[in-house]
Every structure is written in structure tokens, then in C-alpha cells.
What does this fold into?
Amino acid sequence: MKRSAEILDGLQTQIVGQEIEIYDQLSSTNDLALQRGIEGGREGTLILAEHQTGGRGRQGRRWHAPPGSSILASLILRHRLLANQIGLPNLIGALAIAAAIRELTNLPAQIKWPNDVLIHDKKVSGVLTELEYDQDHQPFFVMGFGVNVNTLPADFPNELWASATSLRIEAGREISRVLLIQAILSQIEKNYLCLKCGKIASIIAEANRLLYIQGKWIQIETPAGIFDGVVEKIDLDGGILLQNVSGDRRKLWVGEVIHTRSENQAIGNSNKMMYGKSKRREMNHHVSRSTSRKRGENNV
Ligand code: BTN
It folds into this structure.
């Protein structure tokens, strides 16, 4: 993926990815996209890197990928999010990646709310969306995503063997990063235009169709504590609806699924891929009110 012309040739979008910058090495594509966004960079600008020296994941973790193996990408998107849309960009990113993987490889990619993509229970991709204001005080966000495309088993550190995978491992063949990024950009644009027009229902319906944790018992770690319950669905504002053993329903907008369990299964692991520290402002770090019917406490 050395030239933007390779990607632009055959790219079926109006906005997303219509301007592309490709680098051999960056600290983080999100950092450069944030900088470009602050300077007034065009909506839809895509920053790609073959290698990141400081790739960032959610919750201060690091994102590692061997040079040239993956898609490491960040998009500048300019939409003033309403309070009830804050959780949607991560979901749009994860959904786009899962849909593009299915389209290109037929692999059964699923989304693990709020921002992971899994294949056969293992993480293949993650999304990190960050909010910023430009020099004219207009809000924008950067949607960053990493996809393990042609990563080999030996490339993963030991601690990730059980929880991480790549498209090459799952498909048993090399996958074209150009075709995949084109497909992802088209899927993002489709759902981003829906977001801009307030047509959220179709995005959520699609996310629920591909939801890995649907019907599973999960445990979620949030800034306000750990909650558990069986997943009903993703709601229209991107929050996840859980029902606990007492029948209480609860909606969570932020958090990390740390355990999942389906019928007759032992508690699984959290598919955590990253580790480390960071100070950036992630978009889903907001606190929202409870929807629990029986208790009045905050959920997050
Ligand atoms: C996660 O699962 O925690 C999100 C990982 C996001 C990683 C991508 S790689 C490209 C972009 N640049 C970054 O520094 N992070 C995102």
C-alpha cells in the first residue's frame, strides 16, 4: 500500500477516503489525523501508516502490529454529535469493518460492543474514536482503526495467542489490504451519511445482526464499577441493554466487556489486545443516566 492512487482507483465514495496520506512510519495515525483536523483538514481525509511506533488502543493500551502486515488507519470526520450519538462512531467503525470482512472473505466477522471485531471468538480489529475541536472551534472526530490483515501466528506475542487473530490466519490465504480498505471506507461512508441525516435505526439493526455478545451473559467494566447481565440488544443511542438475574434491565453506554459466557460455556477471556498508558480523550468516556427500572443508581 505505497500509493494513494491504488486505493482511490475503484474507491466508491464521495467523502470518506477521497484524500489520502500514506506513511511508512508514524507515531500514531490518530495523532496525525487529530493534528490535521485541528488545522482544518478536509472531511474524509484518511491517514494510513505501514508501521506505528506509538499506536494507541482504548483505555490507554497500546496497539502493536508488525510493519506492513495490517491496516493502520485514521479518518477525519466532521459531524457535530448530539449527546445521544456519542457512542455511535465506534459502532459505525466496527460495523463497517465487520461488514467489509464478510463481503471480501466470507469470514463470519462479528462486533463485540462497543468497538471490537471478532472472528471465531478472537479479536481481529479495534476502533478508537477521539473527539477534538478545530482552530475555528468546530467539533470533529477521528475514527482510528487497526485490522490484523496478514499477521502470522508468530507475529503475535504469547499473551495474545488465545485472544487475537488475523484475516490471513482465518482465511488461510493472503488478503489484499487495498481491496479491504476500499470496502471498509465504502461501509463507513454508508453509515456515516445515515448518522449525518439522523437515520440511526438501520445502523443499529445491522449492528444487532452482527452482535457477538447477543444473548450471552457478559461482565462489563465501566468507570462506575463492574456490571453483568444477559445482553438483549444495542439500543438506538448505541448503549447496550442488559438484564441481570433479578430481571433488572440496565443500559450502559461506556465500558469494556471483560468476560463473556454463553450457555454451557466457561467464562471466556476479555480479548484484550493492548496494554500501556495514554492521556487522550476517547469519545465514549461520558457518563449517562440509568435506565434501571428498579434501582436509581447511575450505570456508568
Ligand atoms: C482498541 O481496540 O483498543 C482500538 C485500537 C485502535 C488502533 C488503531 S491503529 C490506527 C489508529 N492509530 C492509533 O494510534 N490507534 C488506532
Q: What stands out?
A: Residues 28-30, 52, 55-58, 61, 63, 72-74, 115-116, 126-128, 144-146, 274 surround biotin (CB under 6 Å). The chain has six helices and twelve strands. The radius of gyration is 18 Å. Residues 70 and 168 are 10 Å apart (CA to CA).
